[in-house]
Amino acid sequence: MNRLGALVACSLSLAGCGEKLIPNTDVEDTEDNQKVIDYCEQYRIALEARDVARLLAMTTDDYYEDGGSPSGHDDYDRAGLEQRLRSRFQRVEAVRYDIRYRRVVYFPDRVEVYYSYYGRFQVAGQTAGESLWFSEVGDNRLVLARVPDGYKILSGL
Fold first, then answer.
1. What is residue 29's DSSP assignment?
2. What digits encode the pLDDT tens for the residues 80-129?
């Protein structure tokens, strides 16, 4: 009985041990991970503010988005990103964008951040004073380049 009690006590104490996570994420709480998450939160805040200039300033000069089609008709570079942002934000009145960070993966030349998002968008309707809300839920990967003062976004917007 003493052995069983000691085994149960040991098992319970070990169950409480594990990696400490950054609050509201599934990401281990390390200094490097915290810096990456902090940078990604700047992106989220800029997106909610619909701040095209800030979003573009966060991207690399060689930003490129592969839309996934075989023909490449939906691919775009940094200039295309600017056009897409300006076009989409033209009628958007409000944005709420929640991110749940799932994983951060480090490579010598980049960092990949995997996350789930829940975006809600208020868009001007067809008639004056009319607003429509829509939402989008999904998973995404933000690819960050390492730069001397932190990070810049290579793809994933």
1. -
2. 899 999 999 999 999 999 999 999 999 999 999 999 999 999 999 888 88
**Is residue 3 in a domain?**
no
* CATH number of the domain residue 76 falls in: 3.10.450.50
Our count of domains for the chain comes to: 1
Helices within 16-138 (DSSP H only): 31-48, 52-57, 78-89
Query: Per the structure block, which two tokens stand in for 38?
Result: 């902090």
Contact 15, 130 (CB under 8 A): no
Cβ atoms of residues 140 and 65 within 8 Å: no
Q: How many residues does the chain have?
A: 157
How many angstroms separate the Cα of 139 from the Cα of each of 52, 116, 136?
Answer: 22, 4, 10
135 contacts: CB under 8 Å, gap ≥ 6: 118, 119, 120, 121
pLDDT tens readout for residues 55-72: 999 999 999 987 766 776
SS3 10: helix
